[in-house]
Amino acid sequence: MFILKQGAIAPKPFQEVSMSIHEEPLRTWAEIDLAALRHNLGVAREFAKGREIMAVVKADAYGHGLVRIVEAIAEDVAWFGVANVEEGCEVAAHSRGRVLVLGPILPQEREVAVEQKFVVTLSSWAEAEAFEKLGKPVSAHLAIDSGMGRMGCLENEAVDLVKRIQELKWVKLEGAATHFPSADEDIGYTLEQIARTRELLNEFPDLSEVHLSNSAGLLGFAEEQAFATLMRPGLLLYGVSPLPEFQSRLRPVLSLKSRVTLVRELPAGRGISYGRTFVTKEPTRVATIGVGYGDGYPRHLSS
Hints:
- It is a single chain.
- By secondary structure, this protein is an alpha/beta fold.
- It is built from nine helices and 16 strands.
- It has helices spanning 34-48, 58-63, 66-73, 85-92, 110-115, 125-132, 155-166, 187-201, 215-221, and strands at 2-5, 28-33, 52-56, 79-82, 98-101, 119-122, 138-145, 153-154, 171-177, 209-211, 230-231, 254-258, 260-266, 271-272, 278-279, 284-289.
- The strands form four sheets. Strands 3, 4, 5, 6, 7, 8, 9, 10 and 11 form a nine-stranded parallel sheet that branches. The protein has a three-stranded mixed sheet with strand order 1-2-12. A two-stranded antiparallel ribbon has the order 13-16.
- It is elongated, with a radius of gyration of 23 Å.
């Protein structure tokens, strides 16, 4: 069960229950704190230094409930980043912000993406050509593979590909993007990646949107990205810093809570739960908490 501070939420795949949010939940629940979300967005803005924020809300807003997260910040961000067209439709129903589909779009999704006026991400000429054949205007950002390896055109192919796409009638190439694979681990590589991207994008002065940064890139390398127009925080918004030195600046948006359901007195020499990783050395008061596998609490957290 999910409880929303300042409202109620029951994100998929959880089924909404009939009890009032003002009643005490029975055993285990998660609380979503929208004030913490807005605080973290403020931190993102501070590091972005005037550049626009694209709130990444893929995977049901990282499990926090896409619709209510979008509604909570709809007036505060200009862009939302989603993984697929289905998520984009949910965002569009609850926000006037622009939607960028970060992942490759399946052939059967292209018509919907165009009709919904989503900004699509292109990695290849084949994708651009497929959208052109639909005969309807569509805005696009070119993904450039500068080290992530998942998607995007290779850097040495980008200039020619941009020129070809810009000759199309229906596909409007308005932006370019890349992604940091190790901004939270490898400073040297990330700085070199930024330098390569900056040099490459000098070839495309007419592109209005440029974005590189995930949360680690925003927190650790914002100064080096003066040429970027957008920042794409994900984890940061939900209170998780990929760079430990900034964790104190953020507030957790989701809290998992449970109740003590039973208190017992056990003698010495009694094991507690699976694996008997804890054995009482003396008479001990033991509390049983009503959380387990079904609530996402894994056994490896024992002890």
